[in-house]
Write a structure and sequence with these properties.
The complex is a heterodimer of chains A (790) and B (157). Chain A folds into six domains: 7-143, Four Helix Bundle (Hemerythrin (Met), subunit A); 157-269, 2-Layer Sandwich (Alpha-Beta Plaits); 275-393, 2-Layer Sandwich (Alpha-Beta Plaits), CATH 3.30.70.1110; 414-470, Orthogonal Bundle (Helix Hairpins), CATH 1.10.287; 472-653, 2-Layer Sandwich (Heat Shock Protein 90), CATH 3.30.565.10; 658-787, SH3 type barrels (Roll), CATH 2.30.30.40. Chain A is 42% helix and 22% strand. Chain A has 25 helices and 26 strands. In chain A, α3 (60-79) runs antiparallel to α4 (86-108). Chain A is globular, with a radius of gyration of 35 Å. Chain B has helices spanning 73-76, 149-154; strands at 20-26, 29-34, 38-43, 57-63, 66-72, 89-95, 98-104, 106-112, 118-119, 133-139, 142-147. In chain B, the strands form two sheets. Chain B has a six-stranded mixed beta sheet, with no helix packed on it. Chain B starts with 19 loop residues before the first strand and ends with a helix. Classes of the chains: A alpha+beta (790), B mainly beta (157). At the A-B interface, β25 and β26 of A face β4, β5 and β7 of B.
Chain lengths: 790, 157
C-alpha cells in the first residue's frame, strides 16, 4: 500500500486542507461567543472531511487529531448541551488546528507528518468528558455514535427526502444478530482519480470489521481497475456482524464518494427461501419516478436494478445504460422503466422498490406491454392524480435550474492567468498598432474607423473580464485578522471587538499578497500600543471593550483600506523625541507638522514602545507596512487624535497591469505618467516663474508655489524646450505633496500595459516600468513617488 | 536549444550546436559567440534610452512585444565610436536569466571550431578588452576571440 505514488496526491491534499482550515478558522472565530447549530454542523463536516482525507493519505497524526475534534462537535451537534465553555472550546480547537497546520506544512515540504498529537487530543477528550459529565442525564441513553444516530432515522419512504445525505433506505436496522451479508456499490466523484487506490482504501479502513467475500474489479492494484470503477463502480460483497447503519456511516466517510449503494442481501436471500415455492413466471413492467431533489437518478435506478437482479430471470431498463450520466435527465423527465421477468410476486417487487431511497412513486403497467413510450404513460397517469402530477412536474422544473445553478467553479493556476493577462496586454498594444498605423494617415477610412471602434470595444470588454478573473475579495485576508485579534487579546488581557466592513471589495490577486502583512502589522500595532487595558479604558470613560474597525472600499481606481482604533492615539512628543534620538530630523523640530511627525512611524527601526512584547515593539513592522504597500504602488497615511485613537489608511491601486496614462514628449523620448497622479497640466507664463538663490525653479500657480522639475535634467535626456513657458507643466500629486514636471509636450492619453524594465537594469529612480505605444515605440512609465522622496 | 551555459557538458550526440560559433566584426577583429546562446539576429531598430545607465548601455528595444536591453559592444570594448550603418546588427543573446541585445558592426558566418583548436587567452591581462575574452579559437585564416558572455552581461549597472 505504501508503494503507491503519494506525491501527486499530497499536493492536492495540502491545497484542499489549507482551504478547509481557513474556512474552519473563520467559523470558529466568528462563533466564539456561542456556535449556532449551522456552525456546529459546518465545523463537524469540515473536521470530518479533514479526518477522512488525512486517513486516506495515511497521515495518522492529522486524522486522529481531527477525529478527536470531530467527536467533540458530534456531541455538540447531537446533544446541544447547555452551559458550554465556548471560549475554552475555541482555544482547544484553535490549538488543534495549529497542530494540523504544522503537520500540513510538513507534508507540503515533503516530509512526513510525524507530530505527536496527544498533547492536543488529550485536553479535547477531557473537555468532552467534562461536557458529557455536565449533561449527565443524557449520558446513559446516548453514548455512542450509532446510538445517537438511530433515533434520527426516519420512517422509510416520504421522510427520506428530507435527509441531506445520500442515505439508503434503512431496510433493516435492527441490532445485529449474527453475521449479515452486504453488498455495496461505490461510485467516486468525477475527477477523483486513482479510484482503484480509493477503493482499496475502503477495504483497508473496514479491515477487521468486515469479511470480504468478493469484490469487483478484483485486482485493485492495477491502474486499469480505476477505469473500470469509474464506469461500473466498485462492487464489494462482504459479511459483517455490524449493523447496516454503522457500515453505511463507515463507508460514507470515504472521500470523493459520489454515491454509495449499500444493501443487506441477507434479507433478500431469506426472502428467496420464503417465497421459494412460488414458481409461476411473471413479467412486470414498472415505471419508477424519483423525488425531484434526489439527484443522481441514474445511479439510484442502477442500484435498484442491482437489487432486483438476484430475483429476476431477465431484466431490461429504459433508458438502457444507467451508468451514463446523461440518462439522469431522461429519468427525471420520464422516470425509469424496468421490465423484469421473475418468479416473484408483484408485491415482492413493489416491496423492493418501495425500500429504495428517494422513490417518489411507481406504477406497474400491464405485464405484456412494456409501455416505455411517453404518450402511453401520460395517458395512464392522467386520470387519478392530475393536479398532483402537474404540481410535481412544476416542482421538477423548478428544481432543475436550481441544480444547474450550482456555481460551477474551476481552479486555474495563477500562472495561466498571468499569461492571459500578458496576452491581453499584447492585444491592447497591437490594436493600437493597427488602428494608429502611420500608413493609414490621410486616408478616407469611414467604415474602417467604425469597425475599429467595435474592435476596441470588444477588446475593452475582454480586458475587463480578464481583469475581473484576477480579482479576489479581501474577505480571506480580513478574516485572518480575527484570529490575530483574538490571540492577542487573550495574551495581553485586552478586550477588543474587531469589526469588518466591505470585505467583499476585490483587488488584483498580485496585490492581495502584499496586503496581508501590512494589515497584520497595523492591527497588531493598534492592539498592542493603541488600545488600553480594560481598567484604564474604564477610568478614561471609554467602553471597556476596545474597538478596531477594518474597512475596505473602492475609491476611483484605488481601494482604500482603513484601520481605525479607539485607543490612545499616537504620542506626538514621544515620536518626535525618538526621531531626534535616531537622527531622523532634517529640519528644526518646531517646523514639523503633526502629519509629518505621524509619518515617522513608517521609517525603519522606529518603535516608541519601551517594552518589547511578543507582538510588536522590536522596531520592525511599520516600515514593512510602507515598503510593502509602496511596492504595489500604494501609499499609507496615518491620522491620529491623542486619546481618541488612530486611523491608518492604505491606498492601493486596483490593478497593476494596465493603467490609464498620459504620454508626454521629451525630445525624441516618450514618458507616460499615470493619470491618477496628475492633478492638472498647464502652460506657464514667464511672469509666474521665478528662481531661488540655489537655482531651484518655482512656479506660482494661482497663489500656490510649486517646485518645477525639468524632466530632461532629471532623467538626463535631450529636450527641445529650454524655457519653462515653451513646454508644458504637469502637476503631480503624491499624498499631500505636489510637484510640477516640465515636459516638451503632451502626446495623448491612453491605456497602457505596464511592462517591467529588464532585470539587467537596476531600479531607476522615477521610473516604474515601461510600456509600448501604438506605434511600437517604448515609453518609460514615471514613478510619481520617485519625485518626492529625496 | 536554449541552454546557454556553455560550461556544462552537453549531450554530444544530440547537441547539434556544439562547436558552432557565430562570428562578428568589430574594427578588424573577429569575435565569436556560441550559437547556443544566440536567440536571434536583428537589424538596428529604434532604441529607447534608459536613464541612469552607463553610456555603453544604449537602452531598451521592443522585440515583438518583449522589452530587451541593448548594449553597444564597441563602446563596451572602449573602441572608437563608429556610426551605425546597414551592416550594423543586434545579436540577441540569452544567458541565464538575462536576454540582451549586443550591437556589433556586422555579423560574418557560422564556424565550427573544434575544441582542440581552442586555447586559453594569455594569462597576463595587459589591456582592458581581453577581460571579456574567454578563449581564443585558432583557424587557418586567423584567430577568433571567443566572448565570455557571463562577464559581458554581469556588469553591475
Amino acid at each position: 500500500m505504501a508503494d503507491f505514488d503519494r506525491d501527486s496526491m499530497s499536493e492536492m491534499f495540502t491545497f484542499e486542507m489549507g482551504q478547509l482550515i481557513e474556512q474552519l478558522e473563520q467559523i470558529i472565530i466568528q462563533g466564539e461567543a456561542g456556535y449556532s447549530t449551522q456552525q456546529i454542523n459546518e465545523i463537524f463536516r469540515i473536521m470530518h472531511t479533514i479526518k477522512g482525507s488525512a486517513a486516506m493519505m495515511m497521515y495518522d497524526s492529522i486524522s486522529t487529531a481531527a477525529h478527536s475534534m470531530e467527536d467533540l462537535f458530534f456531541y455538540l451537534r447531537e446533544e446541544n448541551p447547555h452551559g458550554v465553555d465556548y471560549s475554552g472550546l475555541t482555544d482547544l480547537i484553535l490549538a488543534g488546528m495549529d497542530f494540523i497546520k504544522e503537520e500540513l506544512a510538513k507534508v507540503a515540504s515533503g516530509s512526513s507528518p510525524d507530530g505527536d498529537g496527544s498533547a492536543i487530543i488529550a485536553p479535547i477528550k477531557r473537555y468532552l468528558t467534562e461536557l458529557k459529565g455536565e449533561a449527565s442525564n443524557d449520558v446513559e441513553t446516548v453514548s455512542s455514535e450509532e446510538a445517537a444516530d438511530v433515533p434520527k432515522v426516519p420512517a422509510p419512504s416520504t421522510a427520506i427526502a428530507d435527509e441531506d445525505e445520500a442515505q439508503q433506505s434503512p431496510v433493516l436496522i435492527e441490532a445485529s444478530a449474527g453475521e449479515r451479508t452486504y453488498k455495496a456499490i461505490v461510485f467516486f466523484e468525477e475527477g477523483a482519480e486513482m479510484e482503484n487506490v480509493r477503493a482499496f482504501n475502503i477495504l483497508h479502513i473496514l479491515k477487521g470489521k468486515i469479511e470480504v467475500v468478493t469484490h469487483y474489479p478484483e485486482d485493485l492494484m492495477v491502474e486499469e481497475s480505476a477505469d473500470e470503477i469509474r464506469k461500473q463502480g466498485f462492487t464489494v460483497t462482504f459479511n459483517s456482524s455490524l449493523p447496516y447503519k454503522e457500515i453505511q456511516i463507515a463507508m460514507s466517510e470515504t472521500i470523493y464518494l459520489k454515491s454509495l449503494l449499500l444493501e443487506d442481501i441477507t434479507a433478500a436471500n431469506d426472502d428467496i427461501y420464503v417465497d421459494g415455492d412460488v414458481n409461476e413466471i411473471n413479467n412486470y413492467t414498472v415505471i419508477i419516478r424519483f423525488l425531484p431533489d434526489c439527484e443522481m437518478e441514474n445511479i439510484r435506478a442502477f442500484g435498484l436494478v442491482q437489487r432486483l437482479v438476484p430475483h429476476a430471470a431477465s431484466i431490461t431498463t429504459t433508458p438502457e445504460n444507467l451508468i451514463d450520466e446523461n440518462t439522469i435527465y431522461a429519468i427525471r423527465a420520464q422516470g425509469v422503466t424496468i421490465s423484469i421477468t421473475t418468479t416473484q410476486t408483484q408485491e415482492f417487487i413493489r416491496d423492493i422498490v418501495e425500500h429504495t431511497a428517494y422513490v417518489q412513486d411507481m406504477e406497474f403497467v400491464d405485464g405484456t406491454s412494456r409501455a416505455p413510450q411517453r404518450g402511453q404513460k401520460q395517458e395512464q397517469k392522467s386520470e387519478p392524480a392530475k393536479p398532483e402530477t402537474a404540481a410535481k412536474t412544476d416542482e421538477v422544473k423548478k428544481s432543475q435550474p436550481s441544480k444547474n445553478a450550482v456555481p460551477a467553479v474551476i481552479s486555474v493556476p495563477v500562472s495561466r492567468l498571468d499569461q492571459l493577462l500578458n496576452l491581453m496586454g499584447e492585444l491592447v498594444i497591437s490594436e493600437a498598432m493597427v488602428t494608429q498605423n502611420p500608413e493609414l494617415e490621410n486616408l478616407e477610412l469611414d467604415s474602417f474607423l467604425k469597425e475599429t471602434r467595435q474592435l476596441r470595444k470588444i477588446i475593452k470588454d475582454i480586458q475587463e473580464v480578464v481583469m475581473s478573473m484576477r480579482m479576489v475579495p479581501l474577505s480571506t485576508t480580513f478574516f485572518k485578522m480575527h484570529r490575530i485579534v483574538r490571540d492577542m487579546c487573550r495574551q495581553l488581557g485586552k478586550d477588543v471587538q474587531l469589526d469588518v466592513i466591505g470585505e467583499e471589495t476585490e483587488v488584483d490577486k498580485n496585490i492581495i499578497e502584499h496586503i496581508s502583512d501590512p494589515l497584520m502589522h497595523i492591527i497588531r500595532n493598534s492592539l498592542d500600543h493603541g488600545i488600553e487595558m480594560p481598567e484604564t479604558r474604564a477610568k478614561l470613560g471609554k467602553p471597556e471593550k476596545g474597538a478596531v474597525t477594518l474597512e475596505a472600499k473602492n475609491s476611483g481606481g484605488d481601494v482604500l483600506i482603513i484601520i481605525r482604533d479607539d485607543g490612545v492615539g499616537l504620542d506626538k512628543d514621544k515620536i518626535l523625541r525618538k526621531a531626534k534620538q535616531n537622527g531622523l530630523l532634517k529640519k528644526p523640530e518646531l517646523e514639523y507638522t503633526d502629519k509629518e511627525i505621524q509619518q515617522f512611524i513608517f521609517l525603519p527601526g522606529f518603535s516608541t514602545n519601551e517594552q518589547v512584547t511578543s507582538y510588536s515593539g522590536r522596531g520592525v513592522g511599520m516600515d514593512v507596512v510602507s515598503t510593502n504597500i509602496e511596492a504595489v504602488g500604494g501609499s499609507v497615511l496615518v491620522e491620529s487624535t491623542p486619546g481618541l485613537g488612530s486611523v491608518f489608511t492604505l491606498k492601493i491601486p486596483l490593478t497593476l497591469a494596465i493603467i490609464d496614462g498620459m504620454t508626454v514628449k521629451l525630445g525624441v523620448a516618450k514618458f507616460t505618467i499615470p493619470i491618477v497622479s496628475i492633478k492638472q497640466s498647464f502652460k506657464a507664463t514667464k511672469s509666474e516663474i521665478f528662481t531661488d538663490p540655489d537655482g531651484n525653479e518655482m512656479i506660482n500657480a494661482r497663489g500656490e508655489i510649486y517646485n518645477v522639475v525639468r524632466l530632461d535634467e532629471f532623467f538626463g535626456v535631450e529636450s527641445n524646450v529650454k524655457n519653462i513657458e515653451d513646454g508644458i507643466l504637469i502637476m503631480l500629486e503624491n499624498g499631500d505633496q505636489t510637484v510640477t514636471l516640465l515636459a516638451d509636450d503632451l502626446v495623448g492619453e491612453q491605456q497602457v500595459v505596464v511592462k517591467s524594465i529588464p532585470k539587467f537594469f537596476k531600479k531607476i529612480r522615477g521610473i516604474s516600468g515601461c510600456t509600448l505605444l501604438g506605434n511600437g515605440e517604448i515609453s518609460l512609465i514615471i514613478d510619481v513617488a520617485g519625485f518626492f522622496d529625496k | 536549444m536554449t541552454n546557454s551555459d556553455f560550461s556544462i557538458e552537453y549531450d554530444e550526440e544530440k547537441d547539434t550546436t556544439k562547436d558552432l560559433y557565430m562570428t562578428f566584426n568589430i574594427d578588424n577583429e573577429i569575435y565569436g559567440i556560441e550559437i547556443a546562446s544566440i536567440k536571434e539576429i536583428i537589424e538596428m531598430v529604434p532604441i529607447t534610452r534608459v536613464p541612469e545607465s552607463p553610456d555603453y548601455v544604449l537602452g531598451i528595444i521592443n522585440l515583438r512585444g518583449d522589452i530587451v536591453g541593448v548594449l553597444d559592444v564597441r563602446k563596451r570594448f572602449m573602441k572608437e565610436p563608429k556610426a551605425y550603418d546597414t551592416q550594423t546588427c543586434i545579436i540577441v543573446v540569452e544567458h541565464k536569466e538575462y536576454v540582451l541585445g549586443l550591437i556589433v558592426d556586422s555579423v560574418n558566418e557560422v564556424l565550427t571550431i573544434e575544441e582542440s583548436k581552442i586555447s586559453a587567452p594569455p594569462s597576463a591581462k595587459l589591456n582592458h578588452h581581453n577581460q571579456f575574452i574567454r578563449n581564443i579559437g585558432q583557424l587557418e585564416s586567423g584567430v577568433v576571440l571567443l566572448l565570455d558572455l557571463e562577464k559581458l552581461l554581469q556588469q553591475q549597472l
